[in-house]
Amino acid sequence: MPLAGLIGRPLRALVRLACARPVATVLAALALAIASVVYALSSLTFATSTRALLPPGKPYVER
Description:
Layout: H1 3-20, H2 22-43, H3 59-62
């Protein structure tokens, strides 16, 4: 089976489902967006020091 058939059939089914249930599609998108924001706020951090981005213990870092 060609790759287009392997990808195309599930995508067509997903589009049909999304068109048949637009409210559920929007609610699912909102739930995923909220979950993504919660995850990002609780897990992601910023390394503001350039030294924190370099490998520890290397001679060129310790200078």
